Amino acid sequence: MENSVSASKALILGILILGLSQGIASMIDLFPITKIISSILYALIYIVVAYWGVKLLSKKALNLPLKACRIDRVHIERKWLTCGIILPSAVLIILVL
């Protein structure tokens, strides 16, 4: 029974962390910058704050390392970086044409 209480508490904390991450990231709209730059910054801030929140949640609430939650270190592979640049660019070019 103790695990279910801990799991539900972790679930609620996880949802709060995601909401907080989104709230912090959405504050980027307060600055007068272009929509493209603000969208990129929003995504980066959201990812970083959500990662820090999940890291804190796993260590403090669940007493587990990130590896036990199947969250590993970030390693960027060339093929995924290339796809991440080419695919949005291709969509943008198609929309413009």
Number of strands: 0
Bulk shape: extended
N-to-C terminal Cα separation, in Å? Answer: 59 Å
Q: What portion of the residues fall into strands of 2 or more residues?
A: under 5%
Task: Outline the structure in words.
- It is a single chain.
- This protein has 97 residues and is mostly helical.
- The chain is built from three helices and no strands.
- It has helices at 2-26, 35-61, 78-96.
- The longest helix has 27 residues, at 35-61.
- The termini are far apart.
- The relative contact order is 0.10.
Q: Which structural traits does this protein have?
A:
single chain, 97 residues, mainly alpha, 3 helices, 0% strand
Quick summary:
By secondary structure, this protein is mainly alpha-helical.
What secondary-structure arrangement, pairings included, does this model have?
Layout: H1 2-26, H2 35-61, H3 78-96
